[in-house]
UniProtKB/TrEMBL annotation:
Residues 28-137 form the DUF2147 domain. Keywords: Signal. Residues 1-22 form the signal peptide. Pfam families: DUF2147. This is DUF2147 domain-containing protein. The keyword Lipid metabolism does not apply. InterPro entries: DUF2147. It comes from Sphingorhabdus lacus. PANTHER family: BLL6627 PROTEIN, BLR1215 PROTEIN. It comes from the Bacteria.
Amino acid sequence: MAFPKSSAALIALGFLSVSVQAAAPVTGRWTTQSKDGVVEIYECGATICGKLAKFLVPPPNGVGQKDINNPNKALRSRTLLGMNILTGFKAAGDEWKGQIYDPKSGKTYRSVIYKGKSGNLVVKGCIGPFCQAQTWTPAR
């Protein structure tokens, strides 16, 4: 019995149409896990960025707090409020990959973010294969 070419094409197409899950949108305003700030995530060109939009707990030097822990001395005079701490995030499957800057330590980490089942944002900072996760909630 000859196998019709159209059937073979449909079967091949079935194997190729593996469900590809796109990363859920993560834009919006998010309260950090420590509840000390709000980060606004937005589209910036072809990537996603996130800036420190609001202090919920004032830093030691008030809203004018500078980036004093930055290892680059030239950047230590920039103000934290309004500064991008999430940069270069691109969709990768069902998550977003980029970099996160921690102004408390002055370090930048590889990062992965995605929307959890509860609608909260899971934010991971990674060194090598090891990641530490936080859960950010929608800001009110």
